[in-house]
Amino acid sequence: MKKFLTVSVLLTAAITATAQVSLQPVVPAVGMIQKTQLWNVLIANSSSEPYNCRLELVLKDRSSNLEVFTATTSVFALGAGAKQFNINSLGPVQYNYLSPGFDAKQTGLLPVGNYTACYSLTGTGEKAISLADECIQFDIEPLSPPMLISPADSSLLETAPAQFSWIPPAPDGMFSRLNYEIIITPVNEGQTATEAIQENVPFYSQGNLTANFLSYAAAYQAFEKDKWYAWQVVARDDRNYAGKKDAWVFKMNADGTKVIGEGKHVYDGHDQDHTVEGPKFFKRNGYYYLFPPAGGVATGWQLALRSKNIYGPYERKVVMDQGSTTINGPHQGAMVQTQTGEYWFFHFQDKGTYGRVVHLQPVQWKNDWPVIGVDKDGDGKGEPVITFKKPNVRKTHSILTPAESDEFNSDTLGLQWQWHANPKIQWWALMRNAGYLRLFAYPSDSGKNFWTVPNLLLQKFPAADFTATAKIKWTVEWDVWQKKKAGLIIMGNDYAYLSIIKNEKGFFVSLVNCKDALLGKEEEIIEQQPLRDSIAYLRINILSPDATCSFSYSEDGVNYKSIGKSFIAKPDKWIGAKVGLFCTGTPGVRNGGYADVDWFRITK
Fold it and tell me: Is the peptide bond before 545 cis (omega within 30 degrees of 0)?
């Protein structure tokens, strides 16, 4: 009994120590931040007991959910009361950098991005005790995106070839591998410049530009006279987004000798509405309306701007945000009006692994302002709804969903399929009346992981819970089977797949995982089982809320055997996870081999 009491007293003391110490990072929520500023913390010890402590920090990139670095301070003394600490009182600090290309200097500006910083304060001694934990989120943004210079907005090109130039984003110290992509596209009637950039096939585009100008050579495609074109520059730090400026427009007149107008800025969102982008424009009841999303993909809100004059000044109003709902970042959409006069608003929700899910919200107009969704508290700002009465379109329609399963009985791929990169005809064949999809073992797999492999045939997750099954026959040619495989895959920053392979002992089904594929990590074989022949039914079952995947296979299409362990699907870069098919070879191995996919079926 005495021994039990001793343990209880020690446990109580540890809990009390943790409860009496609090930790508060003092880091700006948005803007430019130096790595040294991450160590500005306020620590309060409400007990009379001093501690020798060590502070640990884990910095994670929210867009990829990958750790950037971990860091640990030296041991420092924590007395009673509250004290502000910084790098000078906590250093030296030991850093462990986990992201390739991340600036390894302990000073200097953090790269542009969205971050989560988690702190752990530990008391040292004979036994380490946890004193306090705290996580914060912050965003790093440049002071200024790239600023377009020439050709000026709403101008006519006077010379050919055109010269495109812009000012780099600022400040320079935020970027280690600054590069640009320029996009030029025709503007169709009724389109804004931003809509043209987002919706039209580019007239010209070029990436990985290191200079802040482009000379449009005479050998390039010529601009048509009397036609408007939009252009935009996107800045990146290595592959990470680093800012973009609103699209500008220009036109070639019949003679190419004069300017017909100048562009005007009508709204600047830097003060209240960071990441204003992609506005829609229309007119109603004498008002000009701009509908730009703001606030970023996962946490943003929907703005409405209105003015009696097209050039402003524009009034601002937030017309929808998350409110009390579970629908985060409801924005970046478009207003539509039905044939019965109803207004509705399309927008997306970023659901991480499940991608960007489209919602439809009702719209009511009050005092010439739109209220999107429902206004529960009467403040004129809506929040999204999960269920609602369908739009009145004067007819009753059956419930339809986008295509998912595919029997491959057509000679064209269905619209549900997306290649991992721009497709090549050498990757697949759909012969008329063949009844199967043939995927060739195209040599694009480097052997390390699938992050850069283009010939993955994928589709978006169709539901929160679903099962994907495919019947695949793997054929080896020239008896060359080395480093070739075909199968069913869940693709993302982490990925997993079931594949049919062959070696000197025969055919096998193999479960393979890869974590941190974006960082170039290698694959791991989880389990491998022999097959009677080259035909197998491969199955992946996905369950919400974490997109937990379990794997099984069958040799007769009836009896399925579990294989390996469960896997948590992860989003890809700026997109959700995807499910699909693949057939790959490796450069340096003789071409040949293919997989015939009889069918791919989704069940819910």
Answer: yes
Say what the pTM is: 0.58
Structure tokens at 324: 């009390």
- Alpha carbon 405 to its chain centroid, in Å, reads 25
Same fold, 17-140 and 418-603: no
Tokens of 16: 């009390």
The answer, yes or no, to whether residue 170 has pLDDT greater than 80, is no
Report helix, strand or coil for 596.
Answer: strand
User: Do residues 507 and 501 make contact, with C-beta atoms less than 8 angstroms apart?
Assistant: yes
The token pair that represents 545 in the structure block: 């809320």
The fourth-level CATH superfamily of domain 143-263 is: Immunoglobulins (2.60.40.10)
Is the pLDDT reported for residue 265 higher than 90?
Answer: no
For residues 544 and 476, what is the distance between their CA atoms, to the nearest angstrom? 37
The span from the CA of 91 to the CA of 88, in Å, is 6
Residue indicated by tokens 């693709």: 491
| Beta-strand relationship, 129-140 and 30-31 | parallel
Average pLDDT over residues 491-500: 96
CA distance 360 to 364: 13
Tell me the per-residue pLDDT of 548-570, one tens digit each, with 9 for 90 and over.
Answer: 999 999 999 999 999 999 999 99
CATH number of 270-400: 2.115.10.20
Strand partners, 522: none
Distances (CA, A) of 556 to 264, 438, 510, 537: 67, 21, 17, 8
Domain residue spans of the chain: 17-140, 143-263, 270-400, 418-603
The structure tokens 């694959």 sit at 523
Classify domain 17-140 by CATH architecture. Answer: Sandwich (2.60)
Handedness of CA 441, 444, 448, 451 (dihedral sign): negative
Q: What is the mean pLDDT of residues 251-263?
A: 59
CATH entry 2.60.120.200 includes domain 418-603: yes
Q: % helix / strand / coil in the chain, to the nearest 5?
A: 10, 45, 45
Contacts of 453 (CB under 8 A, 6+ apart): 420, 444, 445, 446, 582, 584
